[in-house]
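Help needed: design a sequence for this.
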């Protein structure tokens, strides 16, 4: 209840209204407004009642809300009640709670999307165990699952791995399989093996180059479309596109100390990867560049092709 005394305007809970009003000495007619308990049990707070008692107390208000919803909102009582609740929260400056409720109403939930969590893990260079520790800590401290568990990140990661997106070569390439669902293959397949080439034992796993390239371009779809928009080109042009790639290989140092609790691994790890440097499209008589990698030496834009332990 809002206090009717001039220059007070305070909002008081119903049960504490009489006590508040007795503080205003200047109010002569306060008896008109003071809450009178006619004996029996004191009135309980709405949220402490049983569901049946809540329905009983709010039946008149519920009837009015239902009538309003049917007249104005096509009978959507839930939307009317939720909006009332949001307005009440925002009136009290409880915007964070209101934002979370709004997110749940729109089906977004208050947590982050697995793909966003994966991007955070990669961009902050967290290992899986470090990410898992952060996930558990945040969940324990806040009581809410803001970050997603590791298994959902691995599912999101599959969309970034070669072999996920179907594609077709036109015209078909000679000596290249038409099968697009390619997982990991032996890194040394197709290479002439001799003692001179490989004086040490190697274990290698690699992706098929064309499948890896298609996946990299699919991952860059938004950047490509934004680049076309910036150059005032249509969303769809049939090309030809020119994609410039830099291949690279880096030694990942001595990994014998990094194996954790698993089996000991060989001494050296080598990674073969490629980076999409720029993409251009033929438009009329000229070539327009629609994408350029600003940090071509960053680990974050390296698309792995092969991992070899030597």
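Sure. Designed sequence:
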């Amino acid at each position: 209840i809002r206090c009717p005394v001039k220059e007070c305007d305070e909002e008081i809970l119903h049960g504490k209204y009489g006590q508040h009003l007795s503080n205003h000495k200047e109010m002569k007619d306060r008896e008109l407004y003071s809450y009178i308990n006619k004996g029996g049990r004191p009135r309980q707070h709405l949220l402490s009642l049983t569901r049946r008692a809540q329905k009983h107390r709010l039946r008149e208000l519920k009837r009015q809300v239902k009538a309003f919803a049917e007249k104005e909102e096509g009978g959507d009582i839930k939307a009317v009640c939720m909006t009332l609740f949001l307005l009440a929260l925002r009136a009290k400056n409880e915007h964070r709670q209101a934002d979370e409720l709004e997110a749940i109403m729109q089906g977004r939930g208050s947590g982050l999307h697995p793909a966003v969590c994966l991007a955070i893990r990669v961009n902050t260079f967290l290992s899986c165990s470090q990410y898992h520790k952060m996930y558990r800590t945040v969940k324990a401290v806040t009581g809410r699952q803001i970050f997603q568990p590791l298994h959902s990140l691995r599912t999101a990661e599959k969309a970034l791995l070669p072999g996920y997106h179907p594609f077709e070569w036109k015209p078909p390439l000679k000596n290249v399989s038409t099968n697009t669902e390619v997982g990991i293959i032996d890194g040394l397949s197709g290479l002439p093996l001799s003692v001179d080439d490989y004086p040490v034992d190697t274990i290698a796993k690699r992706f098929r180059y064309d499948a890896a390239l298609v996946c990299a371009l699919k991952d860059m779809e938004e950047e490509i479309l934004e680049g076309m928009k910036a150059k005032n080109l249509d969303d769809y042009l049939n090309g030809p596109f020119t994609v410039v790639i830099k291949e690279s290989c880096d030694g990942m140092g001595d990994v014998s100390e990094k194996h954790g609790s698993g089996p000991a691994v060989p001494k050296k790890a080598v990674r073969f990867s490629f980076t999409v440097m720029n993409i251009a499209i033929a438009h009329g008589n000229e070539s327009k560049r629609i994408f350029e990698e600003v940090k071509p030496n960053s680990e974050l834009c390296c698309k792995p092709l092969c991992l070899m332990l030597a």
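The first strand starts at residue 184 and ends at 186.
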